[in-house]
Amino acid sequence: MSTDISYTPEEIAKILKISKFTVYELIKRGELTAYRIGRKVRVEGADLEAYKQKSKGLSTSTPPLDPSAINEELVHRHRLTSDESLVICGQDIVLDILTRYLEKQFPQVHFLRRYIGSIDGLMALYRGLANVVTAHLWDSDTNEYNTPYVRRLMPGHQTCVINLVYRMEGFYVAKGNPKNITTWGDLVKPEVRYVNRERGSGARVLLDEQLRISGIKRQDILGYGEEELTHLAVASKVARGEADVGLGIEKVAMQFANLDFIPLHKERYDLVMRLEDVERPHFQALISILRSSAFRNEVQGIGGYDISQMGEIIAEV
User: Fold this and answer.
1) Which of 145, 205, 288, 311 gives 268 a disulfide partner, CB atoms 3.0 to 4.6 angstroms apart?
2) Residue 23 to residue 43: CA distance in whole angstroms
3) What is the pTM of this model?
4) pLDDT per residue over 58-88, tens digit each?
């Protein structure tokens, strides 16, 4: 491998046989040196080779930094890993719109999206692998959304919880609801096939909490072990007749002409970030976007969301 050429993160991912996101994480943590040309990230062949040798526990021939250049190098890395990249976790389309607004305001910043569930998002925030995450986790003991989970999953770390939207969770069923599915108890009907969400998602937590409260055994639900990773995939499976019912948000059901939606639970869909980050420019811009009429009108226009508390600080945990 030549050390005189540069590589894109995608090319690095293929060479190392890892995901592109992992490459960005290595760059973010300063383990793999990178630089920017405009909005494009590049890695020199020599830096890639140095990373590979370091990973093997070998020394490299790269000369040490001149002491006078150390501060400059640290500043460069800080800008790349902290000021020029921001990881946002969550799956809702509202986050795609929010990211677009942020990209317009900060064209030099690389915004990364991770399409993962609520609990995995909070764990990524705790581990320093994400900057902003979403959560819609209902706690049956307190009848509260998100803050009880933030306290448990972010021990010793102060966070800020800001509302994005409210959404309606409910059942996706075939048009006309031929199996007459309206309550949690109907999921154990012998002829009803359920399609589930993955563990750690807000929909899965809501289901499991409701089953616990109702005294329903999960093993009595046909299809409980069959998991999909998105609301869209769940709705699609019901729409194709491969399942009779699944749990998800109303907005997704609106995209299928042959589905009905049975509303069950209004949920609070929040953004969670570290409290220490809130005063930084990117995060202040994010909050300003949430409170802007342009963003609010665009989200309201696509339907299926309650924006009455959008941008409000729900709690500092």
Assistant:
1) 145
2) 10
3) 0.72
4) 433 434 433 333 333 333 333 334 446 899 9
Positions of the chain with pLDDT lower than 50, given as ranges: 58-83
Query: What local confidence, expressed as pLDDT, does residue 65 receive?
Result: 36
> Residue 94's Cα: distance from chain center in Å?
11
Which domains does the chain possess? Answer: 6-69 (1.10.1660), 84-317 (3.40.190.290)
**pLDDT digits over 273-294, tens only?**
999 999 998 899 999 999 999 9
What gap in Å lies between CA 177 and CA 193, rounded to an integer?
A: 13
Q: Who's near 125: CB < 8 A, 6+ residues apart? A: 89, 131, 133, 154, 159, 272, 273, 274
β-bridge mates for residue 204, sequence order: none
In terms of Cα–Cα distance, which of 116, 111, 122, 114 is closest to 86? 111
